[in-house]
Amino acid sequence: MSLAAAARALPPSRHLRATRKGTLTLANNATTSGTLTVNIGADTLRLAVDAGTTPEAATAKVLAAVLNQPALPVTAAAVAGVVTFT
Question: Using alpha carbons only, what angle is made at residue 55 by residues 86 and 32, rounded to the nearest 5 degrees?
Answer without folding.
Answer: 125
